Automatic annotation (TrEMBL):
It comes from Stephanodiscus triporus. InterPro entries: SET_dom, SET_dom_sf, SET_domain_protein. Residues 4-102 form the SET domain. It comes from the Eukaryota. This is SET domain-containing protein.
């Protein structure tokens, strides 16, 4: 958000809110400089949906640190005008809630840390970055990335060209679905199989099966996608309701 817009919002805050706001951390003001409203805003604002450019600042969720292996997902609900937070796995009492700040999840440790440092100005200390490649995490992330690219390419051939779908049978479908399954298995091993990360993979599996005329496979992936979407966006998200609508009318007509 523009500096003057942040300043105006700051000036109009109630004294208590202003004090809570100024208590938030700032890594965007530069070392040795005092905190500014703009620096605090840039450090703590969360995007309000994929298309949003300015973001919004919420005093509670601003306290959530980032993890490349998050235990919660946040989701902006435009109908509720709230950012919702969902657990992406079981969380022990007293465990810190960590969400993910950005699309850094398919990179190895060096790549993720560089991305986070450049984009958010901090050196990531999350469990997955500290672990690095000790348990083979970097190799797994690199494999996940290649598989994601191959799967995206496969399903874009299906989605973008009706003519290509007819060539899309036999071995290529089997190979594409093997990549989907391998990718999901590696994400599970890496501990990043929460709904927010897997929903697009399930969707690719659905698109590949649907194009190949495999109705049972398409339905099964769509059911998994619905579960992942509900887990990360809630049962009333537009996305969840659209998938439910497709499932209810029968996947074979879903196109
Ligand atoms: C939105 S705030 C998070 C809450 C903040 N830690 C606090 O105490 O209020 C973002 C800032 O927290 C710190 N932070 C968040 N995630 C981090 C991580 N994975 N590693 C290191 N620092 C992190 C960085 O200083 C970052 O600029």
């Amino acid at each position: 958000m523009h500096r003057l817009a942040v300043q105006r919002a700051y000036d109009s805050m109630h004294e208590d809110t202003r004090s809570a706001f100024m208590d938030l951390s700032s890594s965007c003001d530069g070392i040795g400089r005092g905190k500014t409203p703009r620096g605090i805003y840039d450090t703590n604002a969360f995007r309000l949906g994929d298309a949003d450019r300015t973001g919004g600042l919420f005093l509670t969720i601003a306290r959530m640190n980032h993890s490349c292996r998050p235990n919660v997902n946040h989701y902006w609900s435009s109908s509720l005008q709230m950012t919702l937070v969902f657990a992406s796995r079981d969380i022990a009492a007293g465990e810190e809630l960590r969400t993910t700040y950005g699309p850094s999840e398919w990179l190895n440790t060096k790549g993720r840390r560089e991305f986070l440092c450049e984009r958010f100005a901090f050196d990531c200390n999350c469990e997955m970055c500290v672990e690095g490649n000790d348990l083979g995490g970097d190799k797994r992330m690199e494999a996940i990335r290649s598989l994601q690219e191959a799967i995206a390419l496969s399903s874009s051939l299906v989605v973008d060209g009706g003519a290509l779908s007819s060539k899309w049978g036999g071995d290529s479908t089997v190979a594409a679905l093997e990549s989907v399954e391998r990718c999901l298995a590696l994400m599970n091993e890496q501990g990043i199989d929460g709904g927010a990360f897997t929903k697009s993979i399930y969707h690719r599996g659905y698109a590949i099966c649907d194009a190949a005329g495999d109705d049972a496979g398409a339905r099964s992936y769509l059911v998994s996608e619905l579960r992942a979407v509900r887990d990360s966006e809630g049962v009333y998200s537009p996305n969840a309701m659209e998938i439910e609508r497709v499932l209810n009318r029968g996947v074979c007509q879903a196109g």
